[in-house]
C-alpha cells in the first residue's frame, strides 16, 4: 500500500505538517482533541487510499506542526489554516472528514466558506453550538466511576504543577470513549497538546454557535455517523445537530462508542467510500 508523502508547508506565519496517501479525489481529515494529531486516523482509514487521495494534517501546535505565537489558538484560526491549506493544495472544493472536535471544525469551515466545500462526513459529532460540547463533558463525567473521577482530579493537579502529562489523563479517560475496551489496543497513542486543548476548548465553550449561520450549510451534503454508545448518543446528536441543519443525515453504528474510526473501521471506510463516491449509503 502507498506509504504516501510527508511535507511541512509554510502557510504564512504557520508551519503545518501534511501527509498525503493515494491518488484520486482528495479527502481532508480533521482530527479531534482539540490538540491531538493526524495519527489518530492511521492505519484505520488507509483502505480509502486505494480510491481517494487522503490528506491528513496536524493542526496548529499539534503533532509535527509548529506552534502559534503566544499560544493564540482558536477555532477561527483553525478555519483560516484550513482555507490556507485548500489554497496551497489548489483544491477548488473540499471533501472534509471531521472527527469529534474535527466535526466542529468542519462545520465552522463550511459555514465560513460554503462555496469551497463539496461534502462533509462528520463522526463522533458534537453539535452546532457549545451546548453539545458542554453536554459531552457532563455525560462523560456521569459515566465515570468515582475512583476514576478522583484519579482524574489528582492527575489534573499534577499536570498543573508540571509533574504529569496529558498521557496520564488519557489513560484514565480512554476506556470511556469506547464500547469495548479491546478496541484500545488499536489506538495509536498520540500526544495531546494541553495548551491547544485548553485554549480551543475554552473558545468552544464561550463562542461556538453556528445557529445563525445554518442556512449557509443548506446546499452541502452532510452525513453524520455516530456510535450507538457514543458519549453523545445518536438521539442526542439528532437533537443537537441533524434536526437543525438542512438536509443533514444521521447514521448509527451498532456496538460502538465515540471512536468510530478505531472501533469500526470497516464500516466507517465503507460509509466514507460510498458517501464521497456517490454510492449507496
TrEMBL record:
Q: Does the keyword Translocase apply?
A: no
Q: Write down what this protein is called.
A: Alpha/beta hydrolase
Q: Which organism is it from?
A: Bacillus salacetis
* Ranges for domain AB hydrolase-1: 26-265
Question: What is the similarity comment for this entry?
Answer: Belongs to the peptidase S33 family.
Q: Where is the signal peptide?
A: none
In the record, biological process GO terms are: proteolysis
Q: Which GO terms describe its molecular function?
A: aminopeptidase activity
Tagged with keyword Signal: no
Keywords from the named record: Hydrolase
Amino acid at each position: 500500500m502507498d506509504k504516501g508523502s510527508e511535507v511541512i508547508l509554510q502557510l504564512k506565519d504557520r508551519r503545518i505538517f501534511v501527509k498525503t496517501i493515494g491518488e484520486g479525489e482528495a479527502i481532508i481529515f480533521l482530527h479531534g482533541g482539540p490538540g491531538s494529531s493526524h495519527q489518530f486516523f492511521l492505519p484505520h482509514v488507509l483502505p480509502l487510499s486505494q480510491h481517494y487521495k487522503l490528506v491528513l494534517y496536524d493542526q496548529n501546535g499539534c503533532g509535527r506542526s509548529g506552534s502559534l505565537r503566544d499560544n493564540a489558538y482558536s477555532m477561527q484560526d483553525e478555519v483560516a489554516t484550513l482555507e490556507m491549506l485548500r489554497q496551497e493544495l489548489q483544491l477548488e472544493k473540499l471533501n472534509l472528514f471531521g472527527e469529534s472536535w474535527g466535526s466542529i471544525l468542519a462545520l465552522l469551515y463550511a459555514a465560513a466558506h460554503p462555496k469551497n466545500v463539496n461534502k462533509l462526513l462528520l463522526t463522533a459529532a458534537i453539535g452546532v453550538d457549545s451546548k453539545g460540547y458542554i453536554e459531552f463533558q457532563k455525560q462523560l463525567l456521569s459515566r465515570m466511576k468515582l475512583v476514576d473521577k478522583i484519579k482524574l482530579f489528582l492527575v489534573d493537579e499534577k499536570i498543573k504543577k508540571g509533574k504529569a502529562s496529558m498521557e496520564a489523563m488519557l489513560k484514565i479517560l480512554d476506556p470511556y470513549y469506547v464500547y469495548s475496551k479491546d478496541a484500545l489496543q488499536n489506538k495509536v497513542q498520540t500526544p495531546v497538546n494541553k495548551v491547544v486543548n485548553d485554549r480551543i476548548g475554552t473558545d468552544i465553550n464561550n463562542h461556538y454557535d453556528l445557529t445563525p449561520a445554518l442556512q449557509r450549510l443548506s446546499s452541502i451534503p452532510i452525513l453524520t455517523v455516530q456510535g450507538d454508545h457514543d458519549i453523545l448518543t445518536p438521539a442526542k446528536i439528532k437533537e443537537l445537530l441533524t434536526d437543525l441543519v438542512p438536509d443533514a443525515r444521521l447514521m448509527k453504528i451498532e456496538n460502538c462508542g465515540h471512536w468510530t474510526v478505531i472501533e469500526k473501521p470497516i464500516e466507517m471506510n465503507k460509509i466514507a467510500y460510498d458517501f464521497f463516491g456517490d454510492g449507496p449509503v
